[in-house]
């Protein structure tokens, strides 16, 4: 005679493993999408860095000319 609790636990464990597998696949897909977004945003980051440096240089030169 088989243990009904063991059978029920086996079914539940199988469901847990299946859901975990789906979750892992989804997380991997999410990571892939995030990598694509980061790659696509690289030029925007470069432009933002350049604009920030330009603003700092302008601010520095304005402060330097005030002293004269």
TrEMBL record:
<keyword id="KW-0493">Microtubule</keyword>
<dbReference type="GO" id="GO:0008608">
    <property type="term" value="P:attachment of spindle microtubules to kinetochore"/>
</dbReference>
<keyword id="KW-0995">Kinetochore</keyword>
<comment type="similarity">
    <text>Belongs to the DASH complex DAD4 family.</text>
</comment>
<keyword id="KW-0137">Centromere</keyword>
<keyword id="KW-0206">Cytoskeleton</keyword>
<keyword id="KW-0158">Chromosome</keyword>
<dbReference type="GO" id="GO:0005874">
    <property type="term" value="C:microtubule"/>
</dbReference>
<protein>
    <recommendedName>
        <fullName>DASH complex subunit DAD4</fullName>
    </recommendedName>
</protein>
<keyword id="KW-0963">Cytoplasm</keyword>
<keyword id="KW-0539">Nucleus</keyword>
<dbReference type="InterPro" id="IPR013959">
    <property type="entry name" value="DASH_Dad4"/>
</dbReference>
<keyword id="KW-0132">Cell division</keyword>
<keyword id="KW-0498">Mitosis</keyword>
<dbReference type="GO" id="GO:0042729">
    <property type="term" value="C:DASH complex"/>
</dbReference>
<keyword id="KW-0131">Cell cycle</keyword>
<dbReference type="Pfam" id="PF08650">
    <property type="entry name" value="DASH_Dad4"/>
</dbReference>
<dbReference type="GO" id="GO:0051301">
    <property type="term" value="P:cell division"/>
</dbReference>
<dbReference type="GO" id="GO:0072686">
    <property type="term" value="C:mitotic spindle"/>
</dbReference>
């Amino acid at each position: 005679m088989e243990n009904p609790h063991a059978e029920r636990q086996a079914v539940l464990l199988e469901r847990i493993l299946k859901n975990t597998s789906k979750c892992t696949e989804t997380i991997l897909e999410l990571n892939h999408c995030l990598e694509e977004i980061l790659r696509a945003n690289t030029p925007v980051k470069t432009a933002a860095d350049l604009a920030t440096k330009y603003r700092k240089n302008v601010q520095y030169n304005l402060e330097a000319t005030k002293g004269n």
